[in-house]
Write a structure and sequence with these properties.
Blueprint lengths: L24 H7 L4 H18 L6 E6 L6 H18 L3 E6 L26 H17 L3 E5 L6 H4 L5 E4 L7 H7 L6 E4 L7 H10 L4 E5 L5 E5 L6 E5 L10 H13 L6 E4 L12 H20 L11 E9 L26 E2 H16 L1
Helix pairs in contact: 3-4, 3-10, 6-7, 9-10
Length: about 375
């Protein structure tokens, strides 16, 4: 019955235009090694973040930085400014710089520095990976921890030795592969609620990631491999709002706490001041942060009325803030990448570094009150 069927010359990869080999993780790390001092710094900051999640460190965790990285020199300039702020509040707030190189998309659009570093759809991934590692090395070297989103099982081998905290985004929290991947990540990780606002899937993701799994990836020398994990106990939820609106107010915190307890988890919640919680208006991040700090302050007041402890009893362990050198955002078009304004986001709108300093210092003062 198959004799008259014509088989094309190519029955596999027939929708692939071309492929390019890329450098192996081992080769990249050999070219751009991490100094021992940096290794120690990453190890120590991972432990500090884990201690915050476990209630052993009373500080709050703030993930602060651009929506996405598109220019290395601008990112370095921003990092230097954020480092100064970090040092000023470090006794109460641990600031980790948001360093996002990959952008998940609901439909289409620029997918980030690693995927398209030249912003022109040439997809020079080799260049992008080099840029990403260069920036992470710099930020760690100046004494600022890095946080990044993890989108696949291959990229982490190139850069995650320089990452102290990671996130799984709203579009991938429900993905089995990403839950398996997190179970093997060496750093604390936050799972965002779904784009629709569903919190339960994030709680279930944390439960899953705490267990052992197997997933396919590549080794440092570039060979396909099966990774067997031991589970990641240092995970938390990130509330980012959803289709029905923001979810940072106290009633949503209480709801999230209940869902986490129902799943056998100790409630540990981070609030994303941007995205759905800001209703996609970067200027609203200030109000979100003020509300969250008010919740934390009220909880602290309640706990200290019967105790001399200065720790908070709230389940809120920190926030995320989208911030850049300058306020706002600009549109990246196919033929205008050479005319981008410096220091302004090309993805989500961000508050300026000056506004960032102001609202974080206000948050710091709230803790001291």
């Amino acid at each position: 019955m198959y004799e008259n069927i014509t088989i094309p010359d190519k029955i596999n990869n027939n929708r692939i235009r071309r492929f390019k080999k890329i450098i192996t993780p081992q080769e990249l790390k050999r070219k751009m090694p991490s100094p021992r001092k940096t290794d120690v710094f990453v190890m120590e900051t991972r432990q500090e973040i884990a201690n915050i999640l476990r209630g052993k460190d009373n500080r709050l965790l703030f993930i602060v930085g651009p929506c996405s990285i598109h220019n290395l020199e601008e990112a370095k300039e921003y990092a230097a400014k954020l480092k100064v702020l970090s040092d000023e509040v470090s006794d109460k707030i641990l600031i980790v710089m948001r360093v996002y190189f990959e952008k998940p998309r609901t439909t289409i659009g620029w997918k980030g520095l690693i995927n398209d570093p030249d912003l022109n759809e040439t997809y020079d991934v080799n260049k992008g990976i080099h840029h990403a590692r260069e920036l992470l090395l710099y930020i760690n070297r100046i004494g600022l921890a890095c946080g990044s989103e993890v989108l696949d099982t291959i990229t982490p081998q190139y850069i995650c030795d320089l990452v102290s905290w990671s996130a799984i985004g709203a579009r991938t929290t429900e993905s089995q592969v990403h839950r398996q991947l997190v179970s093997g990540l060496s750093m604390p990780t936050g799972f965002k609620n779904g784009t629709g606002g569903t919190i339960k899937m994030a709680a279930e993701a944390i439960v899953s990631a705490a267990y052992t799994h197997c997933f396919m990836g590549i080794t440092d020398d570039g060979h396909p491999a099966i990774y067997e994990t031991v589970g990641n106990p240092d995970c938390h939820i990130i509330l980012r709002g959803g289709a029905d609106g923001p979810n940072y107010e106290e009633k949503y915190i209480k709801e999230t706490e209940a869902i986490m307890r129902e799943n056998g988890l100790t409630p540990k919640i981070m609030v994303d001041c941007s995205h759905g919680n800001s209703q996609k208006n970067h200027r609203n991040q200030k109000g979100v942060l003020q509300n969250v700090m008010h919740q934390i302050k009220n909880s602290t007041s309640t706990s200290t009325s019967t105790s001399t402890s200065t720790s908070t009893s709230t389940s809120i362990i920190g926030v995320m803030i989208e911030s850049n050198i300058k306020e706002g955002k600009q549109t990246l078009k196919k033929h205008n990448y050479n005319y981008l304004l410096p220091g302004i986001s090309i993805t989500d709108g961000c508050i300026s570094i000056e506004e960032t300093e102001k609202i974080i210092k206000e948050a710091y003062s709230t803790i001291l009150m």
